[in-house]
Amino acid sequence: MKIESNIHGIIVPHIPILLAKEMNDQSSSTIKALRDCGMRMQEWGVEAVVAVTTHWQTKESFFIDNSLHHESIMDNSGVQGKSKYSVAGHPELANLLLQAGEKSLIYPSIGKYCANHTIAIPLQFMFPEGNIPIVPLSVSGSMLCAFRWGRTLGNTLRSWRGKVLFLVLGAFSQRHARFMDDGWLIEHENFDQLIVKLLSEGKGMELLTLDQERIENVKPKSAFLGLFMLLGVMGSESPGYIRENEHLSYGGMRIIEFTDFQPSNVLH
Known about the structure:
Layout lengths: L6 E6 L4 H7 L5 H16 L3 E10 L5 E2 L4 E2 L16 E2 L2 H13 L5 E2 L6 H10 L7 E6 L3 H18 L3 E6 L12 H19 L11 H7 L6 H10 L5 E7 L6 E7 L9
Parallel strand pairs: 1-8, 2-7, 2-8, 3-6
Antiparallel strand pairs: 1-10, 4-5, 9-10
Helix pairs in contact: 2-4, 3-5, 5-8
Pfam families: LigB
InterPro entries: Xdiol_dOase_suB
Protein name: 3,4-dihydroxyphenylacetate 2,3-dioxygenase
């Protein structure tokens, strides 16, 4: 995949079992794929990561963390092993995004957020030295509001000209395998594969037309808000390149990359 823009998008998993696999020296195609992605981003010359976490959902407005440093916390009590990942922030870029949001009448706010497990787990495999500064963003509003905010973010990041990885953390459907029978697990997996198919075909906006009852049944993480921010950044018809699609009973390990896609005749 050739990256011709100064922005690149990616969806990555944050399931804590990745830490346990590493501690127990278990092979994992997902861990390998994360490391490979990180190496390619380093070779590309990535200068910052704008990280959208589905675990930071705010009601009043979108939030941006402009801290100088982000200490890692492990906020999942069921995790075997603790992430020690800490990383620098990028206040200059964060404040630039804040100003752009104000000019676009979105009015985001500044908030403080740690590098919790949704950020720390994938990044410690992608950038183990912690040498790439990050700007954490919250999710908020509706899917279309998230898309509009993403469009503002994308235009701002292109103008900034530094090489930025726009990273969305989270799964599609929510699974609690111990409480679900095989039928429900199959339904969740089928739903996830439908999302993967739509994204790979550049049809992510068709998520707006999915059956609402089905969406309620699978309870997608933060109602796709992070995903719609990414579509706003990268372009509504940006096709996803599947790097990993590992199926596990407690959730899929999907890694999907997106290149900048801004044709003039489509919604972007």
